[in-house]
Design goal:
By secondary structure, the protein is an alpha+beta fold. The chain has a domain at 13-101: Double Stranded RNA Binding Domain. Helix content is 38%, strand content 13%. It contains four helices and three strands, in the order E-H-E-H-E-H-H. It has a three-stranded antiparallel sheet with strand order 1-2-3, with helices on one face.
Length: 141
């Protein structure tokens, strides 16, 4: 596992429910005959492996991918084989969970360096000179 992984070796495969249907993806005539599209359904509120805090985080972060019943739906139909699509859906699931449950680092505001301040002032001076050269010569002379 990855160090700092929020899932820490938990296996969710027992809580997956797969639904297959005919895909609109590549495959020629195969598309019309074989159900290669895979939907992975994961019941977030009913999960035994997630803590209540993790469930709340997932409900807020992944709200666009979750149904009204709290079921996370991940679809894969890019491959011609149902098995490959199932594998892709599982990979998507784990990457989504890791991304959602990894805490965001707080940004520490930094002060501008002396060199950056001088560079900014020099650029301002050059811009002011450029704009001053654009004015029309005085017509009264």
């Amino acid at each position: 596992m990855i160090p700092g992984d929020p899932l820490s070796g938990r296996d969710f495969s027992g809580e997956f429910r797969f639904v297959t249907s005919r895909s609109s993806g590549p495959g020629g005539q195969n598309v019309n005959k074989v159900s290669t599209k895979v939907e992975l359904r994961f019941d977030i509120p009913g999960s035994c492996l997630l803590t209540d805090n993790e469930k709340d985080i997932l409900q807020t972060v992944l709200k666009n991918k979750i149904s009204a019943e709290g079921i996370l739906i991940i679809v894969s139909q890019s491959e011609r084989s149902q098995l490959k699509n199932k594998g892709k859906a599982v990979d998507k699931f784990y990457s989504l969970l890791i991304k959602a449950l990894t805490p965001k680092k707080k940004r520490k505001p930094s002060k501008p360096t002396k060199a950056s301040k001088e560079k900014r002032l020099e650029e301002k001076k050059l811009t002011a000179e450029k704009k001053a050269r654009r004015t029309r010569p005085d017509a009264s002379k």
